[in-house]
Amino acid sequence: MPTAIAVTSTDLVLPPADPRTPQAAVLPPPGNRPLDASLADMQQLLARHGHVVVVCPASDPPAVEHRLRTVRGLLESDRIALVRTDLPPLGAAVLVRQLRQLAGCDFSPGVLASAARLLAHYIYAGAVLGSVSRLDRVPVSLGSHLKGWLPGAHFAVLAGPTPQLVRLGSVEERLAGPEFGTELLLARGQLQTDWPTSTLVPAWRIPGPVHETPLPASSPGWWGTGKLVEFAAYLPDLSVLHQLVSSVRREACHWCGMELIGDRCGFCAAPLPPAAPPPPPDRGAPALGPGTRTGSHALGPVAPGGAPARALGPGTGSSRAALP
Questions:
Q1: Burial letters for 295-313: b for 16+ Cβ neighbours within 10 Å, e otherwise?
Q2: Residue 183 β-bridge partners
């Protein structure tokens, strides 16, 4: 059985991308649910799947994370990964669906858990807002706050991978979009605007139809207003996602032994130890001249489309450092 992908809310469960996409397990919030029931839910998932990757948005109430850590501690299980994400609700749901797609492939639980940080960097998550006066998860300048009081002022906000805010109608500013092929998912709130389809789609060169889904219940709280249209541009093709994750070098966690990609284990959160310094040069060997390079620096993950994965981050020199 594939590794189980679990979530903390039904808002994080989008329809499957194809019939082969596994379903996500929804863990009910603590609320009035007794601890014994939460333990039983997790034990059933472990018995059925062997390993569980739980995606828990950073915006969830602290009680949600506390319950998950308590369950993992009481079960004394090293087969439960707790993945935190700063993505807004719709972007987090896209990330969960991508992990579900990859769970049906040949990736180990450790690679799957640590891949979440890599995949999040390829999700362009944002919203069109009728007000930014209560937006506190994306940097907002004083000028933008003041413009927000103007009648009819609307803003396009990008939460990730690089935060950005522009006022609609400004000819000088544009939202920075992906440099690879994506699809767009929309969730409409109380704001009446066609800007995502009329302006964003051609600007980001998004082919094909725009998909729509109900607005997550947590979106108004995340964005600070119910007058919004949330959007997320993402890689839809499983073969591209598989190539992206496969191209990153795999390591073994020195603490728990799980496979991982990047610089941190998805299960125990242990960082990779620093790389050992190179051995001193052999005094009998000729020294390398200035400007000499070795081929190892050319190695790196392959980005969608077959080009080197420069999109992992500005100034990235290796796939490990590229993970956010």
A1: eeeeebbbbbeeeebebbe
A2: 234
